[in-house]
Amino acid sequence: MVKKKASAHPHDGETEQRILNAAKAVFIRHGTAGARMQDIAEEADVNQALLHYYFRSKEKLSEAVFRDTAGRMFPALLQIVASDQPLTEKIDGIIDMYLTTMSRTPFLPGYMISELHHHPERITQLLGHMSGGDMASVTKPAFEKLEKQLAAEARAGRIRRMNGAQFFVNLLSLCVFPFAARPMLRAALGFDDEDFAKFIEQRRKELPVYVRSAIQP
């Protein structure tokens, strides 16, 4: 039995979002290079003509998926970094946000790393779009604030002196690595999906303690 494809009229926002969600699922599973427009059409239950109507090409659709995916994470991350929260709460907030997001879409890190490797301009375009064209106006104040906070904590003797960029990258790496290396961990540790989920929930509890301990003087 042939499945009837959904129809849409021009500027149908619901169909456009369905295509975007389908493309995200296919790109994250197979990578942009390995995905086919036919796969996306079938996932969205539309014909390929509609894909081209809304997004013109796989490249345009790929850009839209990256904006939609990264556009949810980076603003949330920068908001935590730029907040007035104590340093320990920022650590907890970043870890919780990343582990929660990645647990919902465990193949997301591999997709984003691949996209940024092949299209490094996309993060600049995304942050530029968020800031009205001036990326530094978004990132610079947030990381200057983090640097000052780290320096103040070090002067008070609560943490050792450290570079803000190193601290930030170390923290993100500890969050992202298990998901980026998920196939390797499954093979090396014998994890199935349930085991991996339990491992991440354990990490959600232990990682903040580890990071706070690591930065102590």
Q: Which CATH architecture of the largest domain?
A: Orthogonal Bundle
CATH topology of the largest domain: Tetracycline Repressor, domain 2
N/C terminus separation: 68 Å
How do the SSEs run, as a string of H and E?
HHHHHHHHHHH
Essential attributes:
217 residues; mainly alpha; Arc Repressor Mutant, subunit A; 2 domains; Tetracycline Repressor, domain 2; globular
Please, could you describe this protein's structure?
The protein is 77% helix and 0% strand. It is built from 11 helices and no strands. It has 2 domains: 1-56, Homeodomain-like (Arc Repressor Mutant, subunit A), CATH 1.10.10.60; 66-214, Tetracycline Repressor, domain 2 (Orthogonal Bundle). α5 (87-104) packs antiparallel against α11 (193-214).
Brief digest:
With 217 residues, the chain is mainly α. It is built from 11 helices and no strands. The protein folds into 2 domains: 56 residues, Homeodomain-like (Arc Repressor Mutant, subunit A, Orthogonal Bundle); 149 residues, Tetracycline Repressor, domain 2 (Orthogonal Bundle).
What secondary-structure arrangement, pairings included, does this model have?
Elements: H1 13-34, H2 37-44, H3 48-55, H4 58-81, H5 87-104, H6 108-118, H7 121-130, H8 136-155, H9 164-180, H10 182-189, H11 193-214
